Amino acid sequence: MPTPLSPEALRRAPKVVLHDHLDGGLRPQTVIELAESSGHQGLPTTDPVELGNWFRDNANSGSLVRYLEGFAHTCGVMQDEAALVRVASEAAQDLAADGVVYAEIRYAPELFTEKGLSLEQAVEAVQEGFRQGEAASGNRIKVGTLLCAMRQNDGWQRIADLVVKYRDQGVVGFDIAGPELGFPADRELPAFEYLREQNAHFTIHAGEADGPESIWRAVQHCGAERLGHGVRIAEDIKDDQVGHLAAYVRDRRIALEMCPTSNIQTGAVASLAEHPIKRLADLGFRVTVNTDNRLMSDCSMSGEFGVVVDQFGFGWDDLHRFTVDAADALFLPLDERKALIENVINPGYADLKA
Ligand SMILES: O=c1[nH]cnc2c1ncn2[C@@H]1O[C@H](CO)[C@@H](O)[C@H]1O
Ligand SMILES: [Zn+2]
Protein backbone atom coordinates (compact mmCIF):
# COMPACT_ATOMS: atom_id res chain seq x y z
CA MET A 1 0.00 0.00 0.00
CA PRO A 2 1.52 3.39 -0.96
CA THR A 3 1.78 5.88 1.89
CA PRO A 4 -1.08 8.43 1.75
CA LEU A 5 0.02 11.88 0.52
CA SER A 6 -0.36 13.47 3.94
CA PRO A 7 1.50 16.65 4.93
CA GLU A 8 3.76 14.49 7.11
CA ALA A 9 4.59 12.10 4.26
CA LEU A 10 5.22 15.02 1.91
CA ARG A 11 7.66 16.40 4.47
CA ARG A 12 9.42 13.05 4.69
CA ALA A 13 9.77 12.71 0.90
CA PRO A 14 13.27 13.72 -0.25
CA LYS A 15 13.02 17.02 -2.12
CA VAL A 16 15.29 19.21 -4.24
CA VAL A 17 14.72 22.95 -4.50
CA LEU A 18 16.26 24.79 -7.44
CA HIS A 19 14.64 28.17 -6.81
CA ASP A 20 14.64 29.67 -3.31
CA HIS A 21 15.66 33.27 -2.47
CA LEU A 22 17.74 33.76 0.67
CA ASP A 23 16.24 37.21 1.27
CA GLY A 24 12.73 35.83 0.72
CA GLY A 25 12.96 33.04 3.28
CA LEU A 26 13.72 34.59 6.67
CA ARG A 27 11.84 33.54 9.78
CA PRO A 28 9.57 36.43 10.88
CA GLN A 29 11.10 36.25 14.35
CA THR A 30 14.57 36.65 12.86
CA VAL A 31 13.50 39.73 10.89
CA ILE A 32 12.22 41.25 14.14
CA GLU A 33 15.35 40.44 16.15
CA LEU A 34 17.74 41.64 13.45
CA ALA A 35 15.74 44.85 12.93
CA GLU A 36 16.06 45.53 16.66
CA SER A 37 19.80 44.86 16.82
CA SER A 38 20.66 46.70 13.60
CA GLY A 39 18.38 49.69 14.07
CA HIS A 40 16.38 48.94 10.91
CA GLN A 41 13.31 51.19 11.01
CA GLY A 42 9.80 50.84 9.72
CA LEU A 43 8.72 47.22 10.27
CA PRO A 44 4.91 47.25 10.19
CA THR A 45 4.72 45.23 13.45
CA THR A 46 6.97 43.45 15.93
CA ASP A 47 4.61 40.50 16.43
CA PRO A 48 5.98 37.50 14.51
CA VAL A 49 2.59 36.11 13.46
CA GLU A 50 1.34 39.52 12.33
CA LEU A 51 4.61 40.18 10.53
CA GLY A 52 4.39 36.86 8.65
CA ASN A 53 0.84 37.74 7.61
CA TRP A 54 1.93 41.21 6.55
CA PHE A 55 4.60 39.84 4.21
CA ARG A 56 2.13 37.38 2.71
CA ASP A 57 -0.64 39.96 2.24
CA ASN A 58 1.79 42.47 0.78
CA ALA A 59 2.99 39.85 -1.72
CA ASN A 60 -0.58 38.96 -2.69
CA SER A 61 -0.74 41.86 -5.10
CA GLY A 62 -0.96 40.31 -8.56
CA SER A 63 2.06 42.35 -9.63
CA LEU A 64 5.72 41.36 -9.54
CA VAL A 65 6.80 44.94 -8.85
CA ARG A 66 4.52 45.17 -5.78
CA TYR A 67 5.56 41.67 -4.71
CA LEU A 68 9.19 42.78 -4.66
CA GLU A 69 8.51 45.72 -2.29
CA GLY A 70 8.59 43.48 0.81
CA PHE A 71 12.27 42.76 0.24
CA ALA A 72 13.18 46.23 1.50
CA HIS A 73 12.62 44.92 5.04
CA THR A 74 14.47 41.63 4.65
CA CYS A 75 17.46 43.15 2.86
CA GLY A 76 17.33 46.02 5.36
CA VAL A 77 18.25 43.64 8.19
CA MET A 78 20.89 41.71 6.19
CA GLN A 79 23.65 44.33 6.13
CA ASP A 80 26.32 42.84 8.35
CA GLU A 81 28.21 39.58 8.38
CA ALA A 82 26.64 38.17 11.55
CA ALA A 83 23.14 38.70 10.15
CA LEU A 84 24.06 37.03 6.85
CA VAL A 85 25.59 34.04 8.63
CA ARG A 86 22.48 33.64 10.78
CA VAL A 87 19.97 33.99 7.95
CA ALA A 88 21.89 31.56 5.71
CA SER A 89 22.29 29.01 8.50
CA GLU A 90 18.59 29.16 9.39
CA ALA A 91 17.59 28.80 5.73
CA ALA A 92 19.58 25.58 5.42
CA GLN A 93 18.12 24.26 8.68
CA ASP A 94 14.53 25.16 7.79
CA LEU A 95 14.78 23.49 4.39
CA ALA A 96 16.39 20.39 5.92
CA ALA A 97 13.61 20.15 8.51
CA ASP A 98 11.14 20.14 5.62
CA GLY A 99 12.89 17.19 3.96
CA VAL A 100 14.90 19.09 1.37
CA VAL A 101 18.08 17.12 0.62
CA TYR A 102 19.66 19.56 -1.83
CA ALA A 103 18.93 23.27 -2.18
CA GLU A 104 20.22 25.87 -4.55
CA ILE A 105 19.66 29.15 -2.73
CA ARG A 106 20.04 32.49 -4.50
CA TYR A 107 20.44 36.12 -3.55
CA ALA A 108 21.88 39.37 -4.92
CA PRO A 109 25.11 40.33 -3.08
CA GLU A 110 24.73 43.97 -4.21
CA LEU A 111 21.68 44.30 -1.93
CA PHE A 112 23.79 43.65 1.18
CA THR A 113 26.33 46.46 0.77
CA GLU A 114 24.31 49.42 2.14
CA LYS A 115 26.36 49.63 5.34
CA GLY A 116 29.76 49.13 3.76
CA LEU A 117 30.16 45.36 3.33
CA SER A 118 32.04 44.51 0.17
CA LEU A 119 30.49 42.08 -2.29
CA GLU A 120 33.13 39.53 -1.30
CA GLN A 121 32.43 39.92 2.42
CA ALA A 122 28.74 39.35 1.76
CA VAL A 123 29.39 36.20 -0.30
CA GLU A 124 31.83 34.78 2.24
CA ALA A 125 29.46 35.39 5.16
CA VAL A 126 26.59 33.63 3.37
CA GLN A 127 28.85 30.67 2.52
CA GLU A 128 29.86 30.44 6.18
CA GLY A 129 26.18 30.44 7.17
CA PHE A 130 25.28 27.66 4.74
CA ARG A 131 28.14 25.50 6.06
CA GLN A 132 26.97 26.10 9.64
CA GLY A 133 23.37 25.31 8.73
CA GLU A 134 24.33 22.09 6.95
CA ALA A 135 26.31 20.97 10.00
CA ALA A 136 23.51 21.93 12.41
CA SER A 137 21.15 19.75 10.33
CA GLY A 138 23.42 16.75 10.69
CA ASN A 139 24.40 17.17 7.02
CA ARG A 140 20.97 15.97 5.89
CA ILE A 141 21.04 18.84 3.36
CA LYS A 142 23.60 20.28 0.94
CA VAL A 143 23.35 23.85 -0.25
CA GLY A 144 24.70 25.33 -3.48
CA THR A 145 24.67 29.08 -4.04
CA LEU A 146 23.41 31.08 -7.02
CA LEU A 147 24.43 34.75 -7.20
CA CYS A 148 21.91 37.11 -8.78
CA ALA A 149 22.46 40.40 -10.53
CA MET A 150 19.45 42.74 -10.33
CA ARG A 151 17.94 43.33 -13.78
CA GLN A 152 17.25 47.02 -13.16
CA ASN A 153 20.82 47.75 -12.01
CA ASP A 154 23.90 47.91 -14.20
CA GLY A 155 27.10 45.97 -13.61
CA TRP A 156 26.08 42.35 -14.07
CA GLN A 157 29.69 41.56 -14.95
CA ARG A 158 30.80 42.19 -11.34
CA ILE A 159 28.44 39.46 -10.18
CA ALA A 160 29.47 37.12 -12.99
CA ASP A 161 33.08 37.65 -11.83
CA LEU A 162 32.11 36.59 -8.29
CA VAL A 163 30.46 33.42 -9.59
CA VAL A 164 33.72 32.42 -11.26
CA LYS A 165 35.85 33.56 -8.30
CA TYR A 166 33.90 31.46 -5.77
CA ARG A 167 33.09 28.50 -8.03
CA ASP A 168 35.22 26.11 -5.95
CA GLN A 169 33.76 27.35 -2.67
CA GLY A 170 30.13 26.42 -3.17
CA VAL A 171 28.90 29.05 -5.62
CA VAL A 172 27.40 27.03 -8.44
CA GLY A 173 25.81 29.55 -10.77
CA PHE A 174 24.39 32.91 -11.79
CA ASP A 175 20.90 34.40 -12.28
CA ILE A 176 19.23 37.71 -12.90
CA ALA A 177 16.29 38.70 -10.68
CA GLY A 178 14.02 41.70 -10.16
CA PRO A 179 11.54 43.37 -12.51
CA GLU A 180 11.37 41.44 -15.78
CA LEU A 181 9.20 43.75 -17.85
CA GLY A 182 11.32 46.54 -19.36
CA PHE A 183 14.66 44.97 -18.41
CA PRO A 184 15.40 42.26 -20.98
CA ALA A 185 17.89 39.52 -20.13
CA ASP A 186 20.15 40.43 -23.07
CA ARG A 187 20.55 44.00 -21.80
CA GLU A 188 24.05 43.07 -20.61
CA LEU A 189 24.83 40.23 -22.96
CA PRO A 190 28.63 40.26 -22.38
CA ALA A 191 28.12 39.02 -18.80
CA PHE A 192 26.52 35.85 -20.16
CA GLU A 193 29.13 35.49 -22.89
CA TYR A 194 31.79 35.70 -20.22
CA LEU A 195 30.11 33.00 -18.10
CA ARG A 196 29.87 30.69 -21.10
CA GLU A 197 33.53 31.27 -21.92
CA GLN A 198 34.30 30.32 -18.33
CA ASN A 199 32.15 27.16 -18.56
CA ALA A 200 30.02 28.55 -15.73
CA HIS A 201 26.32 27.84 -15.22
CA PHE A 202 23.32 30.14 -15.13
CA THR A 203 19.58 30.20 -14.91
CA ILE A 204 17.46 33.26 -15.74
CA HIS A 205 14.14 34.47 -14.29
CA ALA A 206 11.96 34.66 -17.42
CA GLY A 207 8.36 34.10 -18.43
CA GLU A 208 7.00 35.41 -15.12
CA ALA A 209 6.09 39.09 -15.66
CA ASP A 210 6.75 39.01 -19.42
CA GLY A 211 5.88 36.59 -22.19
CA PRO A 212 7.57 34.21 -24.64
CA GLU A 213 9.80 36.89 -26.15
CA SER A 214 11.48 37.34 -22.77
CA ILE A 215 12.03 33.57 -22.57
CA TRP A 216 13.41 33.57 -26.12
CA ARG A 217 15.96 36.28 -25.21
CA ALA A 218 17.00 34.34 -22.09
CA VAL A 219 17.40 31.05 -23.96
CA GLN A 220 18.58 32.04 -27.43
CA HIS A 221 20.53 35.25 -26.78
CA CYS A 222 21.93 34.54 -23.32
CA GLY A 223 22.02 30.73 -23.29
CA ALA A 224 20.06 30.03 -20.09
CA GLU A 225 20.33 26.39 -18.99
CA ARG A 226 17.19 26.69 -16.84
CA LEU A 227 14.34 29.18 -16.52
CA GLY A 228 13.18 30.81 -13.30
CA HIS A 229 9.40 30.18 -13.44
CA GLY A 230 9.09 30.04 -17.24
CA VAL A 231 5.32 29.67 -16.75
CA ARG A 232 4.45 31.89 -19.69
CA ILE A 233 6.03 29.40 -22.10
CA ALA A 234 2.45 28.09 -22.09
CA GLU A 235 1.54 31.09 -24.30
CA ASP A 236 3.55 29.44 -27.07
CA ILE A 237 1.29 26.38 -26.94
CA LYS A 238 -2.15 26.66 -28.57
CA ASP A 239 -4.54 23.71 -28.17
CA ASP A 240 -1.58 21.40 -27.59
CA GLN A 241 0.13 22.74 -30.74
CA VAL A 242 3.62 23.32 -29.38
CA GLY A 243 5.31 26.38 -30.93
CA HIS A 244 8.93 26.43 -31.98
CA LEU A 245 10.23 28.16 -28.85
CA ALA A 246 8.26 25.88 -26.52
CA ALA A 247 9.45 22.84 -28.47
CA TYR A 248 13.04 24.02 -28.12
CA VAL A 249 12.68 24.46 -24.35
CA ARG A 250 11.06 21.03 -24.03
CA ASP A 251 13.44 19.22 -26.37
CA ARG A 252 16.59 20.70 -24.82
CA ARG A 253 15.22 19.59 -21.39
CA ILE A 254 15.52 23.16 -20.06
CA ALA A 255 14.18 22.91 -16.51
CA LEU A 256 11.27 25.17 -15.58
CA GLU A 257 11.69 26.29 -11.97
CA MET A 258 7.98 26.69 -11.21
CA CYS A 259 6.75 28.20 -7.94
CA PRO A 260 2.97 27.68 -7.71
CA THR A 261 2.05 30.00 -4.83
CA SER A 262 4.42 32.77 -5.91
CA ASN A 263 3.20 32.49 -9.50
CA ILE A 264 -0.32 33.35 -8.37
CA GLN A 265 0.81 36.17 -6.06
CA THR A 266 2.79 37.91 -8.80
CA GLY A 267 0.04 37.43 -11.40
CA ALA A 268 2.16 35.15 -13.60
CA VAL A 269 -0.93 32.92 -13.65
CA ALA A 270 -4.50 34.00 -12.88
CA SER A 271 -5.29 31.08 -10.56
CA LEU A 272 -3.93 27.74 -9.45
CA ALA A 273 -6.41 25.94 -11.70
CA GLU A 274 -4.89 27.78 -14.65
CA HIS A 275 -1.28 26.97 -13.70
CA PRO A 276 0.30 25.18 -16.68
CA ILE A 277 2.43 22.76 -14.61
CA LYS A 278 0.31 19.71 -15.35
CA ARG A 279 -0.22 20.51 -18.99
CA LEU A 280 3.52 21.05 -19.46
CA ALA A 281 4.41 17.90 -17.52
CA ASP A 282 2.02 15.90 -19.71
CA LEU A 283 3.69 17.34 -22.82
CA GLY A 284 7.11 16.18 -21.59
CA PHE A 285 8.60 19.44 -20.30
CA ARG A 286 11.09 19.21 -17.44
CA VAL A 287 8.94 20.85 -14.76
CA THR A 288 10.04 21.28 -11.16
CA VAL A 289 8.25 22.56 -8.04
CA ASN A 290 9.90 25.27 -5.93
CA THR A 291 9.26 27.78 -3.17
CA ASP A 292 10.63 31.10 -4.56
CA ASN A 293 10.16 33.04 -1.29
CA ARG A 294 9.13 31.06 1.77
CA LEU A 295 8.45 34.17 3.85
CA MET A 296 6.59 36.26 1.26
CA SER A 297 4.61 33.31 -0.05
CA ASP A 298 4.15 31.73 3.41
CA CYS A 299 5.14 28.40 1.87
CA SER A 300 7.48 25.43 2.06
CA MET A 301 8.65 22.73 -0.34
CA SER A 302 6.36 20.09 1.17
CA GLY A 303 3.51 22.62 1.17
CA GLU A 304 4.02 23.42 -2.53
CA PHE A 305 3.97 19.69 -3.27
CA GLY A 306 0.67 19.54 -1.37
CA VAL A 307 -0.70 22.47 -3.37
CA VAL A 308 -0.10 20.77 -6.74
CA VAL A 309 -1.18 17.36 -5.42
CA ASP A 310 -4.52 18.81 -4.29
CA GLN A 311 -5.08 20.81 -7.46
CA PHE A 312 -3.91 18.37 -10.12
CA GLY A 313 -4.11 14.96 -8.46
CA PHE A 314 -0.39 14.23 -8.75
CA GLY A 315 0.81 11.06 -7.01
CA TRP A 316 4.15 9.75 -5.75
CA ASP A 317 5.25 8.84 -9.29
CA ASP A 318 4.80 12.46 -10.38
CA LEU A 319 6.56 13.88 -7.31
CA HIS A 320 9.37 11.38 -7.80
CA ARG A 321 9.74 12.44 -11.44
CA PHE A 322 9.75 16.18 -10.54
CA THR A 323 12.44 15.50 -7.92
CA VAL A 324 14.66 13.44 -10.21
CA ASP A 325 14.27 16.09 -12.91
CA ALA A 326 15.22 18.81 -10.41
CA ALA A 327 18.26 16.83 -9.24
CA ASP A 328 19.35 16.33 -12.83
CA ALA A 329 19.07 20.08 -13.45
CA LEU A 330 21.24 21.02 -10.46
CA PHE A 331 24.45 22.87 -11.29
CA LEU A 332 26.44 19.96 -9.85
CA PRO A 333 28.86 17.49 -11.42
CA LEU A 334 27.24 14.45 -13.02
CA ASP A 335 28.58 11.95 -10.49
CA GLU A 336 27.15 13.94 -7.57
CA ARG A 337 23.75 14.24 -9.25
CA LYS A 338 23.75 10.53 -9.96
CA ALA A 339 24.66 9.68 -6.37
CA LEU A 340 21.92 11.97 -5.04
CA ILE A 341 19.32 10.33 -7.27
CA GLU A 342 20.41 6.73 -6.71
CA ASN A 343 21.31 6.86 -3.03
CA VAL A 344 18.81 9.34 -1.61
CA ILE A 345 15.92 10.17 -3.93
CA ASN A 346 15.07 6.78 -5.45
CA PRO A 347 15.15 4.87 -2.14
CA GLY A 348 13.07 7.59 -0.45
CA TYR A 349 10.30 7.39 -3.04
CA ALA A 350 10.51 3.60 -3.22
CA ASP A 351 9.65 3.53 0.51
CA LEU A 352 6.73 5.89 0.05
CA LYS A 353 5.34 3.96 -2.92
CA ALA A 354 5.75 0.52 -1.29
O1 LIG B 1 9.89 35.79 -8.40
C1 LIG B 1 10.76 36.68 -8.48
N1 LIG B 1 10.98 37.29 -9.66
C2 LIG B 1 11.94 38.22 -9.83
N2 LIG B 1 12.70 38.65 -8.83
C3 LIG B 1 12.51 38.10 -7.62
C4 LIG B 1 11.55 37.11 -7.39
N3 LIG B 1 11.60 36.78 -6.08
C5 LIG B 1 12.57 37.53 -5.52
N4 LIG B 1 13.11 38.34 -6.45
C6 LIG B 1 14.17 39.34 -6.27
O2 LIG B 1 15.40 38.66 -6.19
C7 LIG B 1 16.23 39.35 -5.29
C8 LIG B 1 17.42 38.51 -4.90
O3 LIG B 1 17.06 37.41 -4.12
C9 LIG B 1 15.27 39.75 -4.20
O4 LIG B 1 15.78 40.82 -3.43
C10 LIG B 1 14.05 40.15 -4.99
O5 LIG B 1 14.14 41.52 -5.35
ZN1 LIG C 1 12.58 33.98 -7.97
From TrEMBL:
Entry GO MF terms: 2'-deoxyadenosine deaminase activity; adenosine deaminase activity; zinc ion binding
Site (Important for catalytic activity): which residue positions? 229
Q: Which family does it belong to?
A: Belongs to the metallo-dependent hydrolases superfamily. Adenosine and AMP deaminases family. Adenosine deaminase subfamily.
Cofactor: how and how many bound: Binds 1 zinc ion per subunit.
The UniProt record lists the Adenosine deaminase domain at 14-346
As recorded in UniProt, its EC number(s) are: 3.5.4.4
What is its cofactor?
A: Zn(2+)
Name the record gives this protein: Adenosine deaminase
Tell me where on the tree of life, at the top rank, the source sits: Bacteria
Per its database record, what is this protein's job?
A: Catalyzes the hydrolytic deamination of adenosine and 2-deoxyadenosine.
What is the taxonomic lineage of the source species?
Bacteria, Bacillati, Actinomycetota, Actinomycetes, Pseudonocardiales
Q: Which organism is it from?
A: Saccharothrix variisporea
Give binding positions for Zn(2+). Answer: 19, 21, 205, 292
Which residues does the annotation say bind substrate? Answer: 21, 23, 178
